[in-house]
Amino acid sequence: PNSLMSVLSFCNGSKTASGSCGYIGYKANNNFFLNQKTIGQLFLILRELEAKLRDTQKEMEVLKSQVQGKSSNKVAFGASISVGDNVGPFNTHTTLVYKKVYVNTGSFNVGTGIFTAPVTGVYYFSFSGHNHSSKPMGLQLMKNGQQMVTVYNHVAGNRHETATNGMTLQLEVGDQVYMRLMQNTWIIDNSNDHSTFIGHLLFPL
Questions:
Q1: Cβ atoms within 10 A of the Cβ of 118, count?
Q2: Model pTM score
Q3: Transmembrane segments in this chain: where (predicted)?
Q4: Which of 24, 29, 32, 165 could form a disulfide with 38 if both were Cys (CB 3.0 to 4.6 A apart)?
Q5: Phi and psi at residue 74, in whole multiples of 5°?
Q6: What is the per-residue pLDDT for 43?
């Protein structure tokens, strides 16, 4: 018996019966066959789609890295000594530990009082100290073992005093910043949290 065969064509992207806009192939016994020209056109379309897919994947990777970068740039901490008593005096310089933490995105070590920079950038740090002036108070903002800025309250009789200071610092990944109590001085804090240490990233570099 003769095979049942129909010729297919296209017009403006839609398939129609034979005799329309363009010949794309034929169907015989429920099998569809494309001509060589149509196959070539389909390969071109596939290559264009693959190129667009690669471009889309690249754009998604860029967006992903930007989102991750923004997350890693959220760096801040704030803490107070909050011991309810004086700390010091000691016969050597001593790193201060801040026991009450208001906020910490993870780079401030509560156990040691040391902040470690997670990203290269410009940071701002500030600190305050409270003392009874029967003894002096000396505080130093330290970066990698070097003094940056300081405050010093001299002996001034029977009264309480507070001093503050701060500085903007450029840090590399791994740089450490902390507060140091100078030898033979003391600092006092209580539930009012007079003696504090804060820092945050201004912008990455």
A1: 18
A2: 0.67
A3: none
A4: 24
A5: -90, 90
A6: 79
Those residues whose C-beta lies under 8 Å from the C-beta of residue 121, and which sit 6 or more positions away, are: 73, 75, 170, 171, 201, 202, 203, 204, 205
In angstroms, the CA 198 to CA 105 distance is: 12
State whether 60 and 98 are in the same domain: no
Same-domain status, 9 and 98: no
Alpha-carbon distances, residue 43 vs 36, 38, 123, 200 (angstroms): 11, 9, 55, 55
99 and 199 fall within a common domain: yes
How far is Cα 82 from Cα 197, in angstroms, rounded to an integer? 11
Which of 21-25, 42-46, 50-54, 62-66 comes out lowest in average pLDDT? 21-25
Shared-domain flag, residues 171 and 200:
yes
> Domain residues for 50?
5-71
Amino acid at 30: N
Q: Return the residue matching tokens 């010949």.
A: 23
What does the pLDDT look like over 27-42, one tens digit per residue?
Answer: 666 666 666 777 777 7
How many domains is the chain partitioned into structurally? 2
Q: How far is CA 186 from CA 33, 110, 138, 192, 195, in A?
A: 92, 20, 7, 17, 11
Residues 64 and 88 in one domain: no
- Of 71, 90, 109, which residue is a domain's last? 71
